[in-house]
Design brief:
The complex is a heterodimer of chains A (368) and B (467). Chain A is of the alpha/beta class and 368 residues long. Chain A is 43% helix and 17% strand. Chain A is globular. The N terminus of chain A is likely disordered. Chain B has two domains: 90 residues, no CATH class; 263 residues, Orthogonal Bundle (ABC transporter involved in vitamin B12 uptake, BtuC), CATH 1.10.3470. Classes of the chains: A alpha/beta (368), B mainly alpha (467). The interface between A and B is large, with 39 and 47 residues.
Chain lengths: 368, 467
């Protein structure tokens, strides 16, 4: 009795699901079948490939920018493309080997963690070309082109901007993990504030990074957003009103904390890193003062184009303010809050750094 | 369930009352003060008797081994072999559907499903099969490889990746057989990696000796890290699940701290990556430089033989299993439970340490904060899938190694996201953890859920036989 009842119920639910499914298919499946034609675009046999580090191609950071750059250039020029995402450090070498056997002309690898694997595959396959993002070799490898950034230059501008905009006289920064590609932002930021203080005779304080000691606040990884929030709340409690998180997605935690503070009536601002946060992290548009951008996609495009035209060299590509490899993003909605005088000063500093008149130095700067 | 309401002391063994414990429960439900005092002193003397991984329901003094008394965790870990195979099958089918659902061609053809349904079905079929074919080609045999060497390269890669999974999985399985849920393989791999790597790059010793020392250092590192947990458990009663999880974090942040010091960085660089290990300190390759397969795999086989012998043939292994089945009964039978707890965690840590050595001296050859990858956690799944038996773990390690190796090829050949492999792995665990679900899907369930135990066993047996 009970069983038969249950069976009926079961049958009923199966029928219901089937009806719903069929209805959905009816709604979506009514299109006309296309004519059988296979227009394959075989403009070139050149194959551009990319291997991510464990962050994956959706990290809203360097993996993603590089991936998008490669995607753009390959579709523009009608090239073939292969991508391999690494889940752990163990995947680097198998991924690279697979790229070599897939016949990639140029393989872009992302991050210093891939340095050894790239070098060993490059040495074993001297006829293939490689490019590595954010890492340079002490002794250059003949078929690997390092793509590196003097991020401190753009971060210097951000520091100067923060110092010139702060209402409380205190600005802050924190990092994800203490690695050179992170600390270079913090060095530049701290130096920018220092330069502002020297020029204006002010005393704007920087929380979260001590350049002389090369030590500061780090959340420990690039994942835990709650830690970013906690750090930012601490900085706010200590009187900071502008925060620059250098921690990838953890920066969103900082954004959340700042938005709460803004809702509570505080005048606070966020400085994003890597990409223009106004576009890539639109949730925090209303507090986004500016961003320190590394134009990785652009660099990848350039390198692929050069390689395709047979102009590959292993000379590092160094992104600077002079070649627009690193930039300070536009102020967007905050434009009105940045005084015209400050803007012109920033322009002047940018010119001075680009021309070499003003030197920005960091222990993490590329030695090229 | 009623046992849970008993006072905890009631379950404590009392030498004077052992016959009564087994025959009459009511007899021990009224312990007097003298009893309690005696029990306490016994506890301290033995240093045992702390809460174990086996929930209270199995510690109630009733005889171990009766199927209805088994805990859920135990059931999951030592479940039915048929369910294991069906779980893998089911996970693969679901994974295939997921691949099809996310496939672009399937999406387009679904748009004109009624105009030409064959397109849609072909697309679904080809999306799923091409991914799995690529997975197989990347994991076992690649017919397009150059020469025999190239064709078997994927198999070698599978064995390479399986090496740390097998040894770490053995550590988890062994601990579970002694009733301890060891989540700490990750931390044990990391500590082993730190020590092995340091010995590997900081010292410069002759060939043979250097690798031996790297091996000893790594195994010792894992053993100590696991052993501390055993001591904490045996002496203070700290729960091993919580302690091992915390120890994983301590190990990881300790590693990150070390990588931030000059001692563990390359001269003149500040990136958190250690120098490359000396050539004398790394495992020799088994079949030349075209494959990554190293001697560590032979050690993994040796470790499996060792654990198999330890569990099934040695006195110590008997003690481990007795403690795992019922610590109270084991204590009553004169087994030193605290010694067994410490020893089993030490050996489990040593086995995980072997995985750490396979990482730094086998494949990576450097120390980074990703040295343990996710092997410590995958090891739990591997032990689970292997039903905590040594050779089962070995086979499960090979399967997961194959998934990992094949995923690379699948991703590059068909563009299927590598995450699909993680989904399949997770589904396997899900299905293994829910045997009734698997049986229901394959129609193996007894018709009445609340049947008497006897009827249930009988029915299960008949249906199982029919299937």
């Amino acid at each position: 009795m009970k069983n038969s009842l249950r069976a009926t119920l079961k049958r009923g639910s199966v029928a219901g699901v089937a009806t719903a499914g069929a209805a959905a298919l009816l709604l979506t499946g009514c299109g006309a079948a296309p004519e059988a034609s296979t227009a394959t675009n075989t403009a070139s046999n050149y194959k551009g490939c990319i291997v991510s580090d464990s962050g994956g191609f959706d990290d809203q950071s360097f993996n993603q920018s590089s991936y998008e750059g490669l995607k753009k250039v390959t579709s523009e020029l009608g090239l073939k493309m292969n991508q391999a995402e690494s889940k752990t450090n163990n995947d680097f070498e198998p991924n690279l080997r697979a790229m070599v056997s897939a016949g990639c002309n140029l393989t872009v690898t992302v991050g210093f963690l891939l340095g050894d694997a790239t070098k060993s595959q490059a040495t074993a396959n001297p006829d293939k070309h490689f490019a590595i993002i954010d890492f340079g070799y002490d002794t250059p490898v003949s078929n690997v082109k390092p793509i590196i950034y003097d991020t401190a230059q753009a971060a210097f501008l951000a520091g100067y901007l923060a110092a010139g905009t702060t209402k409380t006289g205190t600005v802050a920064t924190f990092g994800g993990i203490k690695i050179p590609t992170v600390t270079i932002f913090m060095d530049g930021y701290a130096d920018g504030v220092k330069y502002y203080n020297e020029q204006k005779g002010k005393n704007v304080k920087v929380l979260g990074w001590d350049k002389a000691k090369q030590d500061g606040s780090f959340t420990g990884d690039f994942e835990k957003q709650d830690k970013g929030k906690q750090f930012t709340q601490n900085f706010l409690d200590q009187g900071a009103d502008i925060v620059m998180p250098v921690a990838g997605p953890v920066g969103k935690g900082a954004g959340a904390a700042l938005q709460e503070a803004k809702a509570a009536g505080k005048d606070v601002k966020l400085i994003w890193v890597d990409s223009d946060g106004f576009l890539t992290a639109p949730d925090y548009k209303d507090i986004m003062l500016s961003s320190v951008m590394k134009q990785m996609g652009q660099a990848v495009e350039t390198v692929v184009k050069q390689d395709k035209d047979g102009q590959f060299t292993n000379k590092p590509y160094v992104g600077t303010l002079a070649n627009d490899g690193v930039q300070l993003a536009p102020f967007h909605d905050m434009d009105s809050q940045v005084p015209a005088e400050l803007k012109s000063e920033l322009d002047q500093i940018k010119k001075d750094i680009a021309s070499g008149k003003l030197k920005v130095e960091s222990a993490a700067s590329p030695k090229a | 369930m009623s046992e849970n309401t008993e006072p905890r002391t009631a379950a404590a063994p009392d030498p004077d009352r052992i016959p009564g414990t087994q025959s009459e429960e009511s007899d021990i439900e009224t312990p007097d003060e003298g009893d309690t005092a005696f029990v306490t002193s016994l506890d301290t003397a033995g240093g045992t008797h702390q809460p174990s991984a086996v929930p209270v329901s199995t510690q109630s003094g009733s005889l171990p081994g009766a199927p209805e008394e088994e805990t859920l965790l135990r059931k999951i870990f030592t479940g039915n072999g048929m369910v294991t195979i069906l779980a893998v099958l089911l996970a693969l089918i679901l994974g295939g559907l997921l691949i099809a659902a996310t496939d672009k061609v399937v999406g387009t053809t679904a748009g004109y499903l009624f105009a030409r349904p064959s397109d849609f079905l072909t697309a679904v079929w080809s999306a799923a099969t091409s991914s799995y074919v690529a997975l197989f080609q990347g994991a076992v045999f690649n017919p397009h490889g150059t020469g025999v060497a190239g064709q078997f390269a994927p198999l070698m890669e599978t064995l390479t990746i399986a090496t740390p999974l097998i040894t770490a999985g053995l550590g988890v399985a062994l601990a579970f057989r002694a009733g301890l849920f060891n989540i700490g393989a990750q931390g044990q791999i990391i500590m082993a990696g730190i020590l092995a790597a340091w010995v590997g790059f900081a010292l410069h010793l002759p060939i043979g000796l250097h690798l031996l020392l790297v091996l000893v250092a790594g195994v010792a590192g894992g053993a100590i890290w696991g052993g501390i947990v055993g001591v904490l458990k045996a002496r203070t009663g700290a729960h091993e699940v919580i302690v091992t999880i915390m120890f994983n974090y301590i190990a990881l942040y300790f590693l990150r701290y070390l990588l931030d010091t000059q001692l563990f960085q390359r001269p003149g660089e500040t990136t958190p990556i250690s120098p490359i290990l000396d050539p004398n300190a790394v495992y020799p390759l088994l079949f030349g430089s075209q494959y990554r397969l190293h001697v560590g795999f032979l050690l993994a086989i040796a470790a499996t033989v060792f654990v198999s012998w330890l569990l099934n043939r040695s006195t110590l292994g008997f003690e481990f299993r007795a403690v795992g089945a019922n610590p109270k009964a084991a204590l009553t039978a004169g087994i030193n439970v605290s010694r067994a707890t410490i020893l089993v965690m030490t050996i489990a840590g040593g086995l995980a340490g072997l995985a750490g050595v396979a990482q730094v001296a086998g494949t990576e050859k450097v120390l980074t904060d990703g040295v343990a990858a996710t092997y410590g956690f995958d090891a739990i799944t591997v032990a689970l899938l292997g039903r905590s038996s040594p050779w089962g773990t070995f086979a499960a390690g090979l399967l997961f190694g194959a998934f990992r190796a094949g995923a690379v090829q699948m991703q590059i050949q068909t563009g299927t996201p590598i995450d699909i492999v993680l989904v399949v792995q997770s589904l396997i665990v899900l299905f293994i953890a829910a045997p009734p679900l698997v049986r229901a899907i394959f129609g193996l369930n007894p018709s009445k859920k609340k049947a008497s135990t006897a009827g249930k066993t009988k029915q299960a047996a008949t249906t199982g036989g029919a299937a």
